[in-house]
Every structure is written in C-alpha cells, then in structure tokens.
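Sync notes, pocket subgroup
Present: LS, DG
LS reminded everyone that the earlier model was apo-only. Rerun requested with zinc ion included. Inputs:
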Amino acid sequence: MTIGAIARRAVRRAPRAPKIAAVLQQRTLKSITRAVGVGLHSGQRVELTLRPAPPDTGIVFRRTDLPEPVEIRMTAEAVTDTRLASTVSTGGAKVQTVEHLMSACAGIGIDNLYIDITADEVPILDGSASSFVFLLQSAGIALQKAPRHFIKVIKPVEVREGEGANVKWARLEPFHGYKLSFEIDFDHRVVNSTGQRVEFDLGSGSYSRDIARARTFGFTREVEYMRSKGLALGGGLDNAIVMDDTKVLNAGGLRYDDEFVKHKILDAMGDLFIVGKPLLAAYSAFRSGHALNNKLLRELLAHDDAWETVTFDDEKRAPAGFADIARAW
Ligand SMILES: [Zn+2]
C-alpha cells in the first residue's frame, strides 16, 4: 500500500462534520445588467441599469437623469399615485409603472437591487414581467451573508370599496408561504370566454413560466381616449393585448388562455412587493387594482398586531420551494 492510499483511507474514515443548518439568505444580482425601452405613458426612451446592492438595501430606484441623483426606496408610503400604474416618489422625484419590474423581483426572489433609471417611467418592454425576469436571471442571482427578512401576516386584514355590482376588495391572511388568488369581472366578449379567476402559489417555482409572461391589456376605445390626453403614447400591439369590441387584435392571440387574470396576479405581486420585503401570506382579491393593493399594504402596516418580521435560520423550515425560487429557471 502506498502512502497516498493510506492517506485516502484515513480521509474516508474521518468522522463527518456535524451538519449546520443553512440560513435562508438574502439575494441580489451577481453582475450589472442593462435594458433600453420606452415608457408606456410618456413614450420616451429610457435606460435601466440594474446593479447588485448590499444586504438590507431593499429595492431602490435611482433617478440618474436629474442634476442631483435621487434615491427612491420601496416602502408602502413611497406610492403616491395609482391611477394608471403604481408610481413611487420621494420629494419631487418620481418613477411611474414600477409594478412589472417589482413583480419580477418578487417572483424570482431578489431582495436587494439598485435600479438606475434615466426617466420618470420604467420601460414597458413587452408589457409583461418576462423581459425583467430574463434580465435578472441573465445577470445571475448571488446569495448574501444576511438572513432574508419576511413580513409574516399573523391576522387577516381586508380593504373594500364600492357596493353591489361595483364592489371590490383585497385581503391578506396568515399562510406559511405566499399564494395569491384573484378574480376579475370584465363583461367583455373576449374576457368572458377566458378564465376570470386564478390561483398561484409562489412555492411552486413556476412564476417565470405561468405568471411572468402575462401582458397588460387594454381596449382600442380606451387607448384612443388616453392618447387624446397624452397618455399611453408608448403603448401598442408590441406591449399590450389590445381588444376592440369583439376580438383580440394581436396577431399572435393570447399567451395563456387566462392571460387577463394572470396579469392581475402579476400586478398584485409587484404592488405588494413595494412594502420592501417578501410577504408570507395568502392574498385574495376581487376586482382589485393598484390603488386598492396599496391601501391593503397600508392597512396591514397600520395594525402592529397583524404582522411580524421573521427570518429562517434553517432553510428547511421555510415554506416549501422558497429556497429554490431563485434557482428555478
Ligand atoms: Zn400591469
């Protein structure tokens, strides 16, 4: 027997080191990535640069086109306008239409990110979150030496508006994981023929495949009206499902049978991630939108006894699938 062989045997016989539980860690990007596109409403060209950020930074937009760059940190209070999209602002600086990019960050589990932007609106790209998912995944996901903080809902909260046929509501309830269910009620020939209710569980790892590709949608009459008001200037068949009174006008049709309601789940995930940390909750909503989603977050935060911040020292105790979300591509 050679000395080398003895050494190898000795290594094989060495007692195993005790297993140390793996902490569920925060995540950022491995490298910088860029995109160029147009804003849906402004129609102006905008450049996005996504940069890795240190632990506990959260998601921070930086308006780099202003004489003095302004940072806008994602918190429920940063949302200042929800009429057409979710707009966040700090002082006089704003960024519109953050929800699809925020949805991609929530969907693939990014905690910390600097988003440098050269205009006041996130580019619409293809009208879904899939281009953002592709960008984030191409840059690579880096695990960071800090535990991931979640906002865990421990008591139900609900917001409600309107009555009868106009009622809409949104609710958060305790759940070990993150699942969303949404129901729309669009009385339109095309939408009626598709599913108007959908449920999605983030722990399934299928965000990129099942939700991220759902596009925003609009009707030709609305688009004409919005253009007359100087809005939706960058919108068209390349970045939205557009319908007239009877049919979808996009040559390729729908990406999912239930693409309309899936886009509402996509939007809700983006709107809710503006709270700054991933949620552990069951979200359910009927005819909700950006305004009601933000109201729901504020309602949650206003009740100290309805939530707490938690971490997982052992990722095995985290909800099923959560440790794999960023790797599921
Ligand atoms: Zn949307």
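DG: The CA atoms of residues 7 and 13 lie 10 Å apart.
LS: Residues 99-100, 216, 263, 267 surround zinc ion (CB under 6 Å).
Action: DG to write up.
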